[in-house]
């Protein structure tokens, strides 16, 4: 039988982190011809991940521009991928999650009648503007996709309710857990000197990220005011805020937190540094989606600075708490975890609902099964089973 030609497409750092272990798995299977196309919707942060996982893309659309718009990204991805697809004529493309690259890549494949596999399928907030534009990117990709690799049983249920055939859905766990098994080291030394000088054993180090569009303006201001209050009223706390490079976020963060004692304002770290900072810290405060999946794997409580989440499993499991951007609510929830060991331990010990490090293998097995190369019974990820 001829090899299945698969093109894996991604453009941002979070996508790259989650697709890297899948790319490595694809390349190990003799039945598959694996190609990688990056759009470089993000450039510098994407390149860090490619280097970390030793991935050399076959195609690089290099679309990133200053002040790029969603329309501009979509148009460039569609036009760039049209040329790639005409040349390579793949049997399947794989996209991940909810970025504009993901939706535009799926649409480009649909126009060429190429099968689409959606990794991390089925997450929903059921509000098309939260998160924006991610919720609709993911939902529209789901409408196009032929194979749906849902990370959890809850994500599968969302897809079934939207009319997706059960035979096209595979519960795999999340590939980010596969990636973290590669990146996290117990005795890790940071390349950043400031991070190495923090006393992680005697201080309660809080890692913070907050940059989502829906929090721009009042949301980020409230978050920063709350963080300042938390540090000033808890002497054992040290705060590490990884500040997004966008001036809309960066200017507000520096206005409120620059120069505050025991606050470290750092640019975004590369993936390995970020994962190891998470591993060393006491707790996490974030509006990121990905960190809600990564932290449970490390036993770190997360306070989510958003009003809704497309990742309810960690909330239900108890390792994540959704608290929004009200200043007083942020302060009270953070103080509870800092001062109440029992409450902290409840969140710290909650079960990880997102995977066992074998998601990439399950996805590739499902691809081979779908194309008739494998007739074995597929084993899905089940959070209640021991792995």
Automatic annotation (TrEMBL):
Enzyme kind, highest EC tier: isomerase
User: In this protein, which residues make up the domain named UDP-N-acetylglucosamine 2-epimerase?
Assistant: 25-367
Gene3D superfamilies named in the record? Glycogen Phosphorylase B
* Keyword line: Isomerase
This entry's Enzyme Commission designation comes to 5.1.3.14
Q: Which Pfam families match?
A: Epimerase_2 (PF02350)
Judging by the UniProt lineage, the source's domain of life is Bacteria
Which molecular function terms from Gene Ontology are attached? UDP-N-acetylglucosamine 2-epimerase activity
Q: Which family does it belong to?
A: Belongs to the UDP-N-acetylglucosamine 2-epimerase family.
Tell me what this protein is called: UDP-N-acetylglucosamine 2-epimerase (non-hydrolyzing)
């Amino acid at each position: 039988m001829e090899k299945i030609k698969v093109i894996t497409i991604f453009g941002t750092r979070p996508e790259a982190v989650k697709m890297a272990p899948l790319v490595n798995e694809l390349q190990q299977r003799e039945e598959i011809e694996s190609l990688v196309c990056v759009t470089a919707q993000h450039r510098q942060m994407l390149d860090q991940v490619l280097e970390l996982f030793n991935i050399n893309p076959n195609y690089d659309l290099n679309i990133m521009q200053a002040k790029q718009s969603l329309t501009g990204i979509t148009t460039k991805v569609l036009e760039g991928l049209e040329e790639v697809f005409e040349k390579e004529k793949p049997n399947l493309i794989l996209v991940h999650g909810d970025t504009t690259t993901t939706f535009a890549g799926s649409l480009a494949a649909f126009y060429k009648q190429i099968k689409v596999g959606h990794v991390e399928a089925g997450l929903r907030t059921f509000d098309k503007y939260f998160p924006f534009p991610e919720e609709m990117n993911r939902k529209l990709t789901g409408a196009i996709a032929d194979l749906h690799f849902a990370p959890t049983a809850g994500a599968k249920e969302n897809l079934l309710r939207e009319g997706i055939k059960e035979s096209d859905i595979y519960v795999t766990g999340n590939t980010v857990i596969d990636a973290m098994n590669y990146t996290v080291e117990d005795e890790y030394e940071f390349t950043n000197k400031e991070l190495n000088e923090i006393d992680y054993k005697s201080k309660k180090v809080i890692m913070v990220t907050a940059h989502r569009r829906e929090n721009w303006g009042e949301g980020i201001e409230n978050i920063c005011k709350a963080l300042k209050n938390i540090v000033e009223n808890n002497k054992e706390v040290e705060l590490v805020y990884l500040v997004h490079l966008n001036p809309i976020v960066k200017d507000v963060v520096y206005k409120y937190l620059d120069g505050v004692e025991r606050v470290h304002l750092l640019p975004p770290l590369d993936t390995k540094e970020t994962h190891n900072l998470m591993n060393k810290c006491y707790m996490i405060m974030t509006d990121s989606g990905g960190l809600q999946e990564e932290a449970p794997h490390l036993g770190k409580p997360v306070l989510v600075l958003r009003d809704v989440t497309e990742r309810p499993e960690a909330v239900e499991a108890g390792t994540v708490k959704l608290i929004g951007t009200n200043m007083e609510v942020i302060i009270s929830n953070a103080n509870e975890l800092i001062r109440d060991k029992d409450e902290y331990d409840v969140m710290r010990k909650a079960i990880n609902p997102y995977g066992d490090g074998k998601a990439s293998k399950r996805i590739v097995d499902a691809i081979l099964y779908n194309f008739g190369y494998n007739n074995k019974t597929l084993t899905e990820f089940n959070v209640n089973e021991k792995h």
